[in-house]
Design goal:
With 154 residues, this protein is α+β, with helices and mostly antiparallel strands. The protein has a single domain, classed as 3-Layer(aba) Sandwich (Glutaredoxin). It has five helices and nine strands. It has helices spanning 43-54, 56-61, 74-84, 97-101, 145-153, and strands at residues 13-16, 21-23, 31-36, 64-70, 89-92, 105-108, 114-117, 120-124, 130-135. The strands form two sheets. It has a seven-stranded mixed sheet with strand order 2-1-5-4-3-8-9. The mean pLDDT is 93.
Length: 154
C-alpha cells in the first residue's frame, strides 16, 4: 500500500544520474510528482517515464517538478535516461530507503528477483504533504495518468 494521503512526506536523499545528491528539501515550496518504477530498461517502466516526458508541458504549466525513482544504480539510470530522452531527474534508491519510507517496496518482483520499487506515483504538495498516492496492483500494470492529472489540477 502506498503512503497515505495527508501524510507528511518522508525526507529522502538519493543520487541522480549526474551523481549528485537530491533531497526532498530541494523541492520545498514546489509540487513534486514522484514516479516509482521497478526497473530501468523494461517496457512498462519506459512507457511510464516516457508518458511523463511527453506531458512535461502539462506538469510545467502547473509548476510541478517530476522525478523518477528506482533501485537501479545511477549509472544504469543515466544510460536509460539517455536512451529514452527523459527530461527530468531519475534518482537511485539502491539502498531501498525511500521505497520503504513511502510504502512502495515490492518484495517479490519477477524471476525470483526481490526488493524493487512498486509501480506508482506520489504527489507531494508545496507544504511537503502527500496529496495523491497510487500504486498499481502488479508491476505490469500502468499507473492511472488521468487520475494523476486530475489530482494535480486541484
Amino acid at each position: 500500500m502506498a503512503i497515505a494521503v495527508g501524510t507528511k512526506a518522508p525526507d529522502f536523499t538519493l543520487i541522480n544520474t549526474e551523481k549528485k545528491e537530491v533531497s526532498l528539501k530541494d523541492f520545498a515550496g514546489k509540487t513534486l510528482v514522484i514516479n516509482f518504477f521497478p526497473a530501468a530498461f523494461t517496457g512498462v517502466c519506459a512507457e511510464q517515464l516516457c508518458s511523463n516526458r511527453d506531458d512535461m508541458d502539462f506538469y510545467n504549466g502547473l509548476g510541478a517538478t517530476v522525478v523518477g525513482v528506482s533501485v537501479d544504480l545511477p549509472f544504469s539510470l543515466g544510460e536509460f535516461k539517455t536512451q529514452q530522452n527523459i527530461n527530468f531527474d531519475l534518482l537511485s534508491d539502491f539502498n531501498k530507503d525511500m521505497i520503504k519510507a513511502y510504502d512502495m517496496y515490492l518484495e517479490d518482483f519477477v524471476l525470483g528477483l526481490k526488493g524493487v520499487s512498486r509501480r506508482g506515483v506520489v504527489v507531494v504538495d508545496k507544504t511537503g504533504t502527500v496529496v495523491y498516492a497510487e500504486e498499481t496492483a502488479n508491476p505490469g500494470t500502468q499507473v492511472n495518468f488521468a487520475a494523476l492529472k486530475q489530482a494535480l489540477k486541484k
